[in-house]
Amino acid sequence: MSLFSFRTQYRKFRTLTSKFFSYWFFIVFATIGVGVAVVERLTGIFGAAHLEPLMILIITYAILVYIVTERAKVLDDIHDRTGKSTTLVYPTREAVYLNIPLIVARTAANGQGRRRIFHAALHGTSARRIARPVPGEPMFEMFEREIDKCAASAGPGMWHVYEIFNIPDEERLAAVEELLERRKDGEGYEVRAFLQASGLPHLSPLVIGDEDLLIGLDDPRYYRSGSAMHLQGRDPVRLATEYFYSLWNDPRIRVLKTETGIDRGQIELVRAELREAGREASPQAV
């Protein structure tokens, strides 16, 4: 087991322990203890006089567990707020896509806040890109597997994943279709798209949970981010969320997948529009 996996599992264990030994647990524990003590004092029905040392040990143990769990919770909050910088820079695409799964895992292990991902992949407006990266790129595979897992989640603790793609040509559309087929059963997975073949390069925001925001700079080779800035805090996430929703509700956007499934009719309309735009952009035969 890697060090990161151990830390993640240990954080989950501490979170579950602190939830179990909550205030209500000690209220119920104390109420039952007082009730047993009163009944025993009045009736002697339990015959517990000889168990006084054991009862003292149980009470002492409960108090120690409470102190340890509360201390761990306070220390976790302090470390989350002061133990690391609120701004990080990932200078390469390797650093970007290797860190995203770690952020998702930390958000899931935290157990607090919303499990959500807002991803606006606004790549490919400044020049043509390679729609499908070279197979076997571990950084991209780790990223895709993590989003696949979040998109496929279900139940009370499910993730809600909303993605916006820019689709400038049919090759990119084919790659997005493959992704949609892979995630077609995701209840909390929705996708919309713009069809911008040219324009100024865009920054691509990625919101994970309530406190992590990555702002990606366009990669010149793939439909990916070549570098990114990682901002931690609710204020930058709130601002980025407002920006994402302004894109999500833009009248020019195309709805490709909702929580009920893929809109294949819309995909065919997009394909026809891209094909027509490609014919208009191609040089005329002499």
Keyword list:
8 helices; Endonuclease, Chain A; 17% strand; 2 domains; alpha+beta; 9-stranded mixed sheet; 9 strands; 286 residues
Can I get a quick summary?
The protein is α+β, with helices and mostly antiparallel strands and 286 residues long. Helix content is 52%, strand content 17%. The chain has two domains: 3-80; 86-281, 2-Layer Sandwich (Endonuclease, Chain A), CATH 3.30.870.10.
What would you note in describing this structure?
The chain has 286 residues and is of the alpha+beta class. It has two domains: 3-80; 86-281, Endonuclease Chain A (Endonuclease, Chain A, 2-Layer Sandwich). It is 52% helix and 17% strand. The chain is built from eight helices and nine strands. The chain has helices spanning 3-20, 23-43, 52-82, 93-110, 138-152, 170-182, 234-248, 264-281; strands spanning 87-90, 116-121, 160-166, 189-194, 204-208, 212-218, 225-232, 254-258, 261-262. It has a nine-stranded mixed β-sheet with strand order 1-7-6-5-2-3-4-8-9, with helices on both faces. A hairpin with a 6-residue loop joins strand 6 and strand 7 (225-232). Helix 1 (3-20) crosses helix 3 (52-82), helix 1 runs parallel beside helix 4 and helix 4 (93-110) packs parallel to helix 5 (138-152). The protein is elongated, with a radius of gyration of 26 Å. It starts with a helix and ends in a 5-residue tail after the last helix. The mean pLDDT is 83.
